[in-house]
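Re: the request from the purification team.
They wanted to know what the chain is likely to look like in 3D before they choose a buffer screen. I agreed to run a prediction and write the result into the notebook, where they can find it.
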Amino acid sequence: MSLRGMLDLDNELMVGKEFWDFVGGKGAYEELLGCFERVGIELRPEIDAYFKKFIK
């Protein structure tokens, strides 16, 4: 299924960088990625321990 014809793709659909820079201003996407990276590094041991429960 294609969105073409259902939406004005240039004006009604934003994803990724385009969306977050629209919501938070220019550079928001890169800042958000940096936040996720820092938190991921800090919480890596906890995240690994959680997912280890699902590996058999």
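For the purification team: Residues 40 and 47 are 8 Å apart (CA to CA).
Please add any questions underneath this entry.
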